[in-house]
TrEMBL record:
One of its GO terms (cellular component) is cytosol. ATP binds at residues 30-37, 147-150, 176, 184-187. The gene is panC. (R)-pantoate binds at residues 61, 153. One of its GO terms (molecular function) is ATP binding. Gene3D superfamilies: HUPs, Pantoate-beta-alanine ligase, C-terminal domain. This is Pantothenate synthetase. GO terms for biological process: pantothenate biosynthetic process.
Length: 285
């Protein structure tokens, strides 16, 4: 497996893969890999001849009070895990390599960011689409793989691809979970023992809300409240938000119908966790 740290080396690698007619699958990550990341890599391995994984903690998507400096980094560990999942090449640039000079052009996301995590993280998705755009260009990926745990991110990147006509197919991969239902996340290591026992209630609370919708409730507020009440009772965390929205448009609903996302974020002492369920209810049901 190749570990590449410069743009020039990556371009040369991609040029050779393209010359050989190989389809490239891209798995963008910020490293400290877990089974969720590896499921993306394995899916990419099944569907492409060459798999490139980027490992880059992108400073542009961190706010001033967020955990950029503390975000876990361990390239040696990640390289072993990536190799076990069939990755051919890791692109692990420094911040200076990715952003060698102040940008002349800045990207701004104008839709799908005023709800969920985006509402309280101004500029976050501007940073996401900037780094993803650079990765799409540098890798010339035919397909790119993203986890649906961060469903808002996937919706924003889908909008990016459509708006700028990137020649890449996006593949959303279902969330990988622990046996008790907690979504895999690099931030789970920050949970205390007691918080770890209560954290699976995040997914169970969302399931409680979805169950109300699937039983015929048409008022979005009541679906949200079913999830909210469960989380307040059992999660042991402070609620950041619980929202039911259309998906992928992320618009407020007047009625429970169509394709939707019920999403929540909760805050424990040292970790903020997100989760969601994307589901559909037929019109008139």
């Amino acid at each position: 497996m190749n570990i590449i740290k410069t743009v020039q080396q990556l371009k040369a690698y991609v040029q050779e893969e393209k010359r050989l007619g190989r389809q490239i699958g891209l798995v963008p990550t910020m490293g400290f890999l877990h089974e969720g990341h590896l499921s993306l890599a394995k899916r990419a391995r099944e569907e492409n001849e060459t798999v490139i994984m980027s490992i880059f903690v992108n400073p542009l998507q961190f706010g001033p009070n967020e955990d950029f400096e503390q975000y876990p980094r361990d390239l040696e560990r990640d390289a072993k895990l990536a190799a076990s999942a069939g990755v051919d090449c890791i692109f692990a640039p420094s911040v200076e390599e990715m952003y060698p000079e102040p940008p002349m052009i800045k990207m701004t996301v104008t839709d799908r960011t005023d709800k969920l995590c985006g509402e309280k993280r101004p500029g976050h998705f501007d940073g996401v689409v900037t780094v993803v755009s650079k990765l799409f260009h540098l890798t010339e990926a035919d397909q790119a793989y993203f986890g649906l745990k961060d469903a808002q991110q996937f919706a924003v990147i889908e909008g990016l691809v459509k708006s700028l006509n990137f020649p890449v197919k996006l593949v959303g991969v279902e969330t990988v979970r622990e046996e008790d239902g907690l979504a895999k996340s690099s931030r789970n290591i920050y949970l205390t023992v007691e918080e770890r026992q209560k954290a699976p209630h995040l997914q169970r609370g969302l399931q409680a809300g979805v169950q109300v919708a699937e039983q015929g409730e048409k008022d979005p507020y009541r679906v949200q409240e079913a999830a909210r009440e469960y989380l307040l009772a059992y999660s042991g965390a402070d609620l950041d938000y619980v929202e039911l929205l259309s998906y992928p448009e992320l618009k407020e609903l007047e009625r429970v119908e169509g394709r939707m996302i019920l999403a929540a974020a909760v805050k424990y002492s040292k970790a903020r966790l997100i989760d969601n369920i994307i589901f559909s209810v037929n019109e008139g049901k």
